[in-house]
Specification:
The protein is mainly beta. The protein has one helix and eleven strands, in the order αβββββββββββ. Strands 1, 2, 3, 4, 5, 6, 7, 8, 9, 10 and 11 form an eleven-stranded antiparallel β-sheet that branches. The chain is elongated, with a radius of gyration of 20 Å.
Length: about 220
């Protein structure tokens, strides 16, 4: 509920702050668009699911999105997938995450420069994370984690028009609040089956700073 409340506040604040500039969208910005994104987590960001520190990841995390701009609002729906692997002397960890994000925003009335548009808004990301840890030492045990949750974030976009149809979209997701259900299991044969698994709930403010670079095509 807090995530939904924050999302509402972000959208309301964006509308109030830019009230004088946000009027009915120009015809050139209206209509459907398709996008392909690559993303990375920056500035010591935590990933959405497992809170693994990520400071300098290369661009990856492919995702596809479709957006609809009409009247004053822009709706965008994105399907995303992330995967990464970490290894040290003691263990090898592989993680995957699947996400569905809905964004609601609006363009400023005028471009910042020739062909450069600013879009402000917020989004809700629904995700499912899967993590498996394989130990390299005989004293440790295999473990896995599962995370299911929702993250609400503020997401400004910079769109650079290349021509009538093609454009580049650079966006930064930050100011997040996340709620998740965490499930864990450790395969220790010396423990009773019921004690090998446990779960908990998390509410976390901030932490996610995701940079996305996209190539879009306006239909």
């Amino acid at each position: 509920m807090r995530a939904l409340l924050l999302f509402t506040i972000l959208i309301s604040t964006t509308t109030i702050v830019g009230a004088q500039d946000l009027i009915e969208l120009k015809e050139e910005r209206q209509g459907f668009a398709l996008k392909a994104y690559a993303s990375t987590f920056i500035l010591g960001s935590d990933r959405h699911s497992r809170l693994i520190h990520a400071s300098a990841l290369p661009f990856g995390g492919p995702s596809l999105a479709v957006s609809l701009a009409s009247n004053r609002l822009v709706h965008e729906l994105e399907v995303a997938y992330w995967s990464w692997e970490e290894e040290d002397r003691e263990q090898r960890r592989t993680s995957k995450e699947y996400g569905l994000r809905y964004e609601l925003g609006t363009y400023l009335q005028k471009p910042l420069a020739e062909g450069l548009w600013l879009r402000l808004g917020g989004g809700l990301l629904f995700y499912r994370g899967v993590e498996d840890t394989a130990p390299k030492t005989p004293s440790d045990y295999p473990r896995w984690g599962r995370s299911t949750g929702v993250a609400a974030t503020f997401i400004p976009h910079l769109e650079w028009l290349l021509n009538e149809h093609w454009f580049i979209d650079l966006s930064l997701s930050f100011g997040s609040v996340r709620f998740s259900v965490e499930e864990h299991r450790v395969d220790r044969p010396d423990l009773p089956p019921r004690q090998r698994e446990f779960s908990n709930y998390n509410m976390i403010l901030g932490g996610v700073r995701q940079l996305r670079l996209g190539l879009g095509y306006k239909l």
